[in-house]
Fold this sequence. Notes:
Elements: E1 2-7, H1 18-23, E2 30-35, H2 40-52, E3 56-60, H3 72-81, E4 87-96, H4 104-121, E5 125-130, H5 133-143, E6 150-152, H6 159-167, E7 171-174, H7 184-192, E8 198-200, H8 222-233, H9 237-252
Parallel strand pairs: 1-2, 2-3, 3-4, 4-5, 5-6, 6-7, 7-8
Helix pairs in contact: 8-9
Bound molecules: nickel (II) ion.
Amino acid sequence: MLIDSHAHLDDKRFNRDRDALIKKLKDDGVEYVINNGADLQTSLASIKLAEKYDNIYATIGVHPHDTKDMDETTIEAFRQLSSHEKVVAIGEIGLDFHYDNSPRDVQRKWFREQLKLAKELDLPVTIHSREASQEVFDMIKEEQDGSLRGVMHCYSDSVELAKEYLKIGFYISLAGPVTFKNSRVAKEVAKIVPIDKLLIETDSPYLTPEPNRGKRNEPSYVRYVAAEVAELRDMSYDDLVSATNKNAKEFYGIK
Length: 255
Ligand code: NI
């Protein structure tokens, strides 16, 4: 059984068949899905899904794209929601200087506030970093006082930076792009991350792995990520899956 450690099943692209898809997860070999919030509304939607289905857990947070619409009341709402038994992390949070959907200063402010909130609540963080590699790392490192636990979601930076994240105790999560022929760096990263710091995910409905590239992504396709990473590491599929499952359960505190 697989764990998809990062998905967005509340996305409108699942409106047509969300319930059917979730009910079929077990048959498709998926034990749990960690569903990530991206603003207050999707965080609430994520919790709703987690309440409805045993095999879904929720994260709450504001994606850098949407930080322009957040304020202190959002942080206070997350503080309240964090005591929900199926809320397992703050995320996804970070910086995105590719789209710049929110002003950079606003992104920076709320990224830091949410890192601080995660420490206050003793929850791990799921991090989105796009074209802001060094700044994301620097901010995390500044906030790392030994109590910050986090995962770099859909890691797409260099091997060198991956090593820096590992040094400060962070996990590295690989997604569909590791299956792409031209993803040379992600394939290198897949080989060097210590097995106890590795997670796998889909980021559904985005980033569909080969051989389904072009279709909507879904949690069961995490098996393609697992197969590719196992091959790159020269280990069996079963060993890779059991190790990453153990990591996901420990990281998110799932019994
Ligand atoms: Ni995501």
